[in-house]
Amino acid sequence: MSTETRIDLSQVRRRLDGQGGRRYWKSLEELAETPGFQSFLHREFPENASLWTGDAGGRRDFLRLMGASMALAGLTACTKQPPEKIVPYVRQPEGIVPGKPQFYATALNDHGYAKGVLVESHMGRPTKIEGNPEHPASLGGTDLYGQAAILALYDPDRSQNLLLEGEIRTWSQFTVALKAALDAQKALKGKGLRLLTEPITSPTLAAQVEALLAEHPEARWHQWEPAGRNSARVGAQLAFGQPVETRYHLDQADVVLSLDCDFVSEGPANVRHIRDFASRRRLQAGVEPNRLYVIEGSPSATGASADHKLVVKPSQVEGLARAVAAGLGLAVAGGSSDRAAFVAGLVKDLQAHAGRSLVLAGEGQPPAVHALAHAINEKLGNVGKTVTFSDPVEARPVDHLASLAELAADLKAGQVDVLIVIDANPVYSAPADLDFKAALDKARLRIHAGLYLDETGERCQWHVPLAHTLESWGDLRAWDGTATLVQPLIAPLYGSKSVHELLAACSGQAAKPGHDVVREHWQAQLGPEFEARWRQALHDGVVAGTAFAAKAVSVQPGAWAQAAPAAVSGMELVFRPDPSVGDGRWANSGWLQELPKAITKLTWDNAALMSPRTAEKLGVKVGSTSRGQSTELVELRYKGRSAKAPAWVVPGHPDDVVTLHLGYGRTRAGRVGDGLGVNASLLRTSDAAGFGGGLEVRATRQAYTLACTQDHWTMEAQDQVRARNLMRVVELEEYQRDPHKIAEEFAHHRPAKDLTLYPPDHKYEGNAWGLVVDLNACVGCNACVVACVAENNIPVVGKEQVAMGREMHWIRVDRYYEGDLDDPAVHHQPVLCMQCENAPCEMVCPVAATSHNEEGLNDMAYNRCVGTRYCSNNCPYKVRRFNFFLYQDWETPSLKLQRNPDVSVRSRGVMEKCTYCVQRINVARIEARGQDKPIKDGDIKTACEQACPAQAITFGDVNDPQSRVAQLKQQPRNYGLLEELGARPRTTYLAVVKNPNPEVSHG
Amino acid sequence: MASPAPGLEQRQPKHPMDAPGAPIIGPGHTFASVTEKIARITLTRKTPLFWLVGFLAAFGVLQLMLLAVVNLLFRGIGVWGPNVPVGWGFDIINFVWWIGIGHAGTLISAILLLLRQDWRTSINRFAEAMTLFAVACAGFYPIFHTGRPWVAFYWLLPYPNTMGLWPNFRSPLIWDVFAVSTYATASALFWFTGLIPDFATLRDRAKSRPWQYLYGFLAGGWRGSARHWHNYEMSYLLLAGLCTPLVVSVHTVVSFDFATGLVPGWHATIFPPYFVAGAVYAGFAMVLTLAIPLRRWYHLEDFITMRHLENMAKVMLTTGLVVFYGYVMEAFFAWYSSNTYERFMMWNRMFGPYWYMYWALIFCNGFVPQLLWSKRVRTSIGSLFAISMVVSVGMWLERYVIIVTSLHRDFLPSSWGMYSGTLYDWSAFIGSLGLFVTLLFLFVRFLPAITMFEMRMLLPGALVPHHGHPLPHSIEEEVR
């Protein structure tokens, strides 16, 4: 690189800052005369500098540019904002009505795959993401990442400048350098060129990469994703001898067996999995309830939904899978003889539901388990019914661990001249044994492109900020191959380039807009009537008819069937993506950091999760204080490496196993994500990416504080849950015999309606809003919580405040344990404002800031609230949240763009709570009034209801007997939380109905 | 109808508060010596060293309150410890504690006046002052515990406004506003009215012009004419009558803050009487805590005699027993109701994470006061002082137990939490003690801490037959 002396922008800015705004002109003249500044200007526009020597017009342009840059540099010294004029549109863009949002269909990139979404846009700024009902990976629902993507768009820590070794450069400077490097490689047929990406399903991008590789035939394309679907990929290859995409159809399955597979969280079809699974848990006429068996090595949301859960060490899952396979008559060796009774019952149940059963293997298990699952499904005749196969959706599926190891080896051997890393972060996430950080530095020219200047970007010479999916044109495929055109909702906030533009630049088309790249690709695909089909595809959010056809494959016998599972000794360490921040890519999302993780309810940290017995053995004590949950650090020694992590006790965790979630210990995530938790990748090795044995754990007695929103799993809490009938759980058989039993059993809990001192002054003659949560359908995925945060401008408060019990979520998912401390059943219960008809909060507010409306809502007038917090004390459901400080970020400009303009941004000192998304009710009401029609059932969807992939939440008018909500409330399993208090909650719950197999024992 | 001066009415000779042999005023005093002794404290030019030291120390401690308030106003109520589920903490604990302490003053001044308990004379003035200062300390908390004190201080008042907004009259917090502000107003008026004749005495005895003007202004033209005395006595009695229901009503209303809520541990019908008894109990403990050093430092043993101390101990013992009965009944109701929430609440108080608070409370308020059954303890200055301190601590713990242990584990176990005060909670609390003591120091320095004219009436010279009433023989005996 060049060795000239540099002047950096910050130095210039500092100098300008020091001068003060009033002496702006004088100091600028002084400044402009310094040789450093002149050279800075010169280097800022190296291409445009030629204009200076051109004709008069060019010179004028140059002066204009120079003036603009001086003005910009001077801005930092001004204390006042320059006056801005607001003018109305001269010509109103078609379809925009001020104050009315518009929705655009597009897709989000989830580990390379498409999740179809509709994005709400207010006057050109996207504010909220909803699922696209037309899209096969969504059907209208989203997961937590889909909801959090909008915050990532506006993240102020996103990379904003193209950098060369930390200095700002222009796109044209970059493309010149890139062209030079690639031209040099061309001569070598690309021998020293390496490309590292995440999996790619985008047809356009795949074609661009292939074109690049065609130009450089000896270049190599590597793929790396730390918590992707590698076992599934390799397992399919193992079973079928070719790469195939496995597609599960949980709606068709009567009996489901999960072999350590958290199918509600992992994979590109998780939202669809939840929808399909929940459709069989609904207990309505015509729906036959399914049964879920889970054999798991680490507690998961899927395990919480199980009818039968078997907790084993992760290494024992394969033996059990082999035993099931053998029990079904497959020629498989190495079956475990443990839990024979359970396996026998399970095998019998699977056989009885041949063709209507489904076995899924988890990503944490080795490929052999996936192959076994394929073999079992084939044996049971499930193929074509509950499971289908297609050509791989990813371009060139590879074994990621092998691919990254190969790249690391090439790097260490000094064979890499140019490395282009797109959106991957191997420096942070590569398994420790590859020592990728050191290897990376051996590449002569390193180019990193990504949303953030992350750990990898930091070690590359060039960093190219990429545009967010919501800022750029593109395309993606869903799990079934359906393509979606990705359209931008907003111009790139920081002028970043899309990945397509980067690849175009690699092929010498530096100035080609991403729109043209994508359009050209599809022009070839869509053929005649292109324009109409293109517009239709953009409108629908899917390109019709692009789903991949089912493919017939058959399981090939192989060594995997006969090999006994690899012996794992000692304590085991399990690596899983974090339930909230995934593999670390979401680490800088405050919404997700503050989201209580499924099962553990921890926030802002990962921890060494262990069973109560293991903790006792280690002498680890955890407790609860008013400043958070006290625990201690334990030292994890694993394969010659060690790390310290706070211990956390999780009932239902297998003994002698520690789970450490990936995604923490980031050092270059941003303001939010830096320095939280420990990096599990520093212990993870490429030969045991899911779990491994030989772990030693040592208590250090160093105290540590965790922020957990619900840590009371003690027996007294458990007894109280039962005594208070908070979770009502029955068995299917019992429920079918006498559906009204649940209701009758608790009938005496419901006080008479007239048992109140106050006259019933509310008649609810118009609409009466109510909500039902089907606890049997809820899988505890947390999408509703993030959706509520996004919709209602809910602030992030930080770890310390969460630890003090001051989190702000309007809806939370309560987790209760039932039964044995070592193997309890887990239940989820989303709790939001009950909108009580006889609300305890309303009576005690001294200024009537919370009061009842004629539709039954407890309205909050934020401007009237003085903040006595009496309403919160008196709320039996504790759904009220208080702004103890100025929690909302009122300063960061980019975050202001995200706010929902229909919802007040609350300030310090006021109480807030769920309003049933009253802003959405009002929109529907205004719309209905305008058309002089009543509001139709389903016209209003609360944010939580709309996001819920399980469709467990139903909102509507309880006065309308035909509404879905009124119908659901007629179900005998409908009950109100704490109804004996007489608050008459409008939010009610449908009891959990478990469907255990009487023939299965857990022995 | 003319009414006799207080203390001159004939009474039954044997009253439990009339322990024979313990005088309410020391022997050998004349009108002049009483006036001289009390007025000298105020009018002396030389400020005693212990006063300066004590005042500066208290004023220093008061700055902690400033620290807490400045932090609170700049950063938010979050600098204190409340959270969800424990929405109230030190703020309301301290509020109730201070309000309770105030009760002794009103009880001594008003009820004992109406009951013709003339032994009250020497302690009523500073007990009233204590009431006012305690209410001032208490009043600080409800305003600053809100999220937005800058609007809370007037939005809770019913004032006509263009938006037609009124407070919510169903909320006990509004009742509180009325109860506490009425209480503060009535107490201040009562105290000031009682001071008028003494202001006149000070005006007449003051040496320097400014003090003459100041006391003269405060005396409001009092010349001691028969008409003045007549009007004075009438209004004083009327004010006493007005204040009497307040003794019961204020803490009853404060207890409604809890009793009308549905939180287990709050929602109990026993709260009003139990709170009132607790208030009197705490108030007498505080009067004792103040009287004992006061009489010693200013050599007022002749005016605040052992009889006063012993009588106050008896009141403490009685109200302490009522309070203890309240604790027992709370536990009994929890068990007898068979209500899951109530039972768990009681179990949690006794054996949950805050068990030590509960048992410390039972020790302080249940067991320690039983020592007062013994006359030896009642007449030992040291043990009285110690017991009254323990009782003050116990009453603070009582509010801690009621507020924190009820809220921290209420209905949904998912929302259970823990609470503890922060640095700023403590500084606001200790700072309010500083405020209280600062005001007391100013009071004893600049106002007569003991009612001069009422003390004079206890002397034999005052026993002129009045409107034909015979001499109260008990006073005769005592003076002898």
Helical content of chain A (DSSP H or I, runs of 4+): 25-40%
The percent range for strand residues of chain A is 15-25%
Work out the helicity level of chain B: 55-70%
Counted beta strands of chain B: 0
Shape of chain A: globular
* Sheet with the most strands, sense and barrel status of chain B: none
Outline the structure in words:
The complex is a heterodimer of chains A (1003) and B (480). Chain A is α/β, with parallel strands linked by helices and 1003 residues long. In chain A, 31% of the residues lie in helices and 19% in strands. Chain A is built from 35 helices and 38 strands. A 7-stranded mixed sheet of chain A has the order 5-4-16-15-14-6-7, with helices on both faces. Chain A has a 6-stranded mixed beta barrel with strand order 19-25-21-24-23-26. Chain A has a 4-stranded parallel sheet with strand order 11-10-9-12. In chain A, helix 12 (314-327) packs parallel to helix 14 (367-379). The longest helix of chain A has 20 residues, at 56-75. Chain A starts with 8 loop residues before the first helix and ends in a 9-residue tail after the last strand. Chain B has 480 residues and is mostly helical. Chain B is built from 17 helices and no strands. Chain B has helices spanning 31-43, 49-75, 90-114, 121-144, 149-155, 172-205, 209-219, 226-259, 271-297, 306-337, 340-351, 355-367, 375-378, 381-407, 423-446, 452-457, 473-479. In chain B, helix 12 (355-367) packs antiparallel against helix 14. Residues 1-14 and 468-480 of chain B have low confidence and may be disordered. Chains A and B meet through helix 25, strand 29, helix 30, helix 31 and strand 33 of A and helix 5, helix 6 and helix 11 of B.
Quick summary:
The complex is a heterodimer of chains A (1003) and B (480). Chain A contains 35 helices and 38 strands.
Write the layout of secondary structure elements.
The complex is a heterodimer of chains A (1003) and B (480).
Chain A: H1 9-19, H2 24-33, H3 35-44, H4 49-52, H5 56-75, E1 102-110, E2 113-122, E3 125-131, H6 144-154, E4 163-164, E5 167-168, H7 171-187, E6 193-197, H8 203-215, E7 220-223, H9 230-240, E8 245-248, E9 255-259, H10 270-278, E10 291-296, H11 301-304, E11 308-311, H12 314-327, H13 340-352, E12 357-361, H14 367-379, E13 387-390, H15 400-412, E14 418-422, H16 426-429, H17 436-440, E15 445-450, H18 455-458, E16 462-465, E17 474-477, E18 483-486, H19 499-506, H20 514-526, H21 530-540, H22 559-562, E19 571-576, H23 590-593, E20 602-603, E21 608-610, H24 612-618, E22 623-625, E23 628-638, E24 641-649, E25 657-661, E26 691-708, H25 715-723, E27 729-731, H26 732-737, H27 741-745, E28 769-774, H28 783-791, H29 799-803, E29 812-818, E30 825-831, H30 840-844, E31 850-852, E32 858-860, H31 870-874, E33 881-882, H32 893-898, E34 911-912, H33 918-930, H34 943-947, E35 953-957, H35 964-969, E36 974-975, E37 987-990, E38 992-994
Parallel strand pairs in A: 6-7, 6-14, 9-10, 9-12, 10-11, 14-15, 15-16, 19-25, 21-24, 27-38, 28-37
Antiparallel strand pairs in A: 1-2, 2-3, 4-5, 4-16, 8-13, 17-18, 19-26, 20-26, 21-25, 22-23, 23-24, 23-26, 28-35, 29-30, 31-32, 33-34, 36-37
Helix pairs in contact in A: 6-28, 8-19, 9-14, 12-13, 12-14
Chain B: H1 31-43, H2 49-75, H3 90-114, H4 121-144, H5 149-155, H6 172-205, H7 209-219, H8 226-259, H9 271-297, H10 306-337, H11 340-351, H12 355-367, H13 375-378, H14 381-407, H15 423-446, H16 452-457, H17 473-479
